[in-house]
């Protein structure tokens, strides 16, 4: 896309946001042109992780919310804002992790482990959330796990995040996690061997690791090397507080753009592994979404959920927000 065309699309998006009483929420994994804030020549009104954006959605005054992310994120925004219209520029922007477990799977787990609390990672669809006791994000999972009296907890669906959390939880509380075998197709690709190679190439770099990367990648990276294992916000904060000038990022490629924008004086080595689902969202279909609002075409982009499902899914999300 030519720069002149990009500039023209951005101007039209800004015009239509005012006309259609709309706000644009953009995830850290979006491409840079969708992450740039409107005040800095971009189109986004708020940029953040899925939890931060969903909370922000509850504060906006606009009637129409457009979520530049994947479908489970837009669903969460709708659950928290049932009286508002929530749109996503491509309904096929799904999530491999969210698709790895269903509501029926959770019901079966409860039957197999009666009385054991179920914690659902935010990366799940609304029907799955509705069958769980509480949701969590990578930012608050540890504190939520600690909050239960039960010595055993069910954690779904990310098995890698579960294993990484299990170590921390066992060290601090002695609790045990029963895990589901779900994975994120992006973070799964950060293997121990690939990060070992980067470790050797960049001997001074510190590691920025998302909870969702495999255990062997964590073990290799943090063996005799500084770094952080945690949420997106943990990664952003660590990069800012560390005295290091060089980092290896093990997370979605365009989080690197966020980091470079926040800390231009630092270097971020970013193996370019992109989420194909979230990249289905672009300037063109964002523009089409805005054009469709208040027309017969709006259903192509609007997130609609059954009222009873919204009611049930809101309960574990509301509990989660106490730990936000």
Can you describe what's shown?
- By secondary structure, the chain is α/β, with parallel strands linked by helices.
- The protein folds into three domains: 3-95 and 277-321, Rossmann fold (3-Layer(aba) Sandwich), CATH 3.40.50; 98-179, Rossmann fold, CATH 3.40.50; 187-269, Rossmann fold (3-Layer(aba) Sandwich).
- Helix content is 41%, strand content 15%.
- It has helices spanning 3-19, 32-35, 50-57, 71-80, 103-112, 126-129, 141-147, 159-172, 192-201, 215-221, 232-241, 255-262, 283-292, 307-321; strands at residues 22-27, 46-48, 64-68, 85-87, 118-121, 134-136, 152-156, 176-179, 206-210, 227-230, 246-250, 267-269.
- Strands 2-1-3-4 form a four-stranded parallel β-sheet, with helices on both faces. The chain has a four-stranded parallel β-sheet with strand order 6-5-7-8, sandwiched between helices.
- The model has no long low-confidence stretch (mean pLDDT 93).
Keywords for this structure?
324 residues, alpha/beta, Rossmann fold, four-stranded parallel sheet, 12 strands, 41% helix
Concise overview:
This protein is of the alpha/beta class and 324 residues long.
Topology:
Elements: H1 3-19, E1 22-27, H2 32-35, E2 46-48, H3 50-57, E3 64-68, H4 71-80, E4 85-87, H5 103-112, E5 118-121, H6 126-129, E6 134-136, H7 141-147, E7 152-156, H8 159-172, E8 176-179, H9 192-201, E9 206-210, H10 215-221, E10 227-230, H11 232-241, E11 246-250, H12 255-262, E12 267-269, H13 283-292, H14 307-321
Total of domains:
3
CATH topology of the largest domain: Rossmann fold
Number of distinct helices: 14
CATH class of the largest domain: Alpha Beta
Main sheet record: 4 strands, parallel
- The portion of residues forming beta strands comes to 15-25%
Number of DSSP-assigned strands: 12
Choose one word for the global shape: globular
Q: State the low-pLDDT regions, or none.
A: none
Percent of residues in helices comes to: 40-55%
* First-residue to last-residue Cα separation: 39 Å
- What is the average per-residue confidence, as pLDDT, rounded to a whole number? 93
Annotated CATH architecture of the largest domain: 3-Layer(aba) Sandwich
């Amino acid at each position: 896309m030519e720069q002149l065309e990009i500039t023209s699309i951005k101007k039209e998006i800004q015009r239509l946001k005012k006309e259609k009483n709309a706000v644009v929420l953009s995830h850290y994994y979006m491409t840079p042109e969708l992450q740039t804030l409107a005040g800095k020549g971009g189109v986004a009104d708020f940029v953040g992780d899925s939890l931060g954006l969903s909370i922000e959605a509850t504060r906006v005054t606009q009637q129409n919310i457009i979520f530049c992310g994947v479908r489970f994120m837009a669903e969460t925004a709708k659950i928290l804002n049932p009286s508002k219209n929530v749109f996503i520029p491509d309904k096929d922007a799904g999530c491999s992790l969210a698709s790895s477990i269903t509501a029926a799977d959770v019901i079966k787990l409860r039957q197999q482990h009666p009385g054991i609390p179920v914690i659902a990672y935010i990366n799940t669809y609304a029907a799955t959330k509705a069958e769980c006791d509480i949701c969590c994000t990578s930012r608050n999972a540890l504190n939520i796990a600690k909050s239960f009296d039960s010595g055993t907890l069910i954690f779904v669906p990310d098995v890698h995040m579960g294993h990484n959390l299990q170590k921390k939880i066992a060290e601090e509380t002695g609790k045990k996690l029963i895990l589901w075998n779900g994975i994120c197709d992006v973070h799964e690709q950060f293997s121990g061997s690939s990060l070992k190679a980067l470790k050797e190439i960049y001997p001074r770099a510190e590691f920025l690791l998302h909870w969702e990367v495999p255990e062997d990648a964590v073990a290799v990276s943090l063996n005799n090397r500084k770094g952080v294992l945690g949420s997106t916000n943990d990664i952003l904060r660590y990069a800012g507080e560390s005295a290091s000038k060089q980092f290896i990022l093990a997370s979605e490629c365009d989080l690197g753009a966020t980091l470079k924008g926040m800390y231009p004086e630092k270097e971020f080595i970013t193996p370019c592994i992109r989420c194909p689902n979230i990249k289905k969202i672009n300037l063109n279909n964002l523009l089409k979404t805005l054009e469709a609002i208040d027309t017969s075409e709006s259903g192509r982009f609007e997130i609609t959920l059954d009222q009873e499902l919204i009611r049930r899914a809101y309960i574990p999300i509301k509990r989660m927000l106490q730990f936000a």
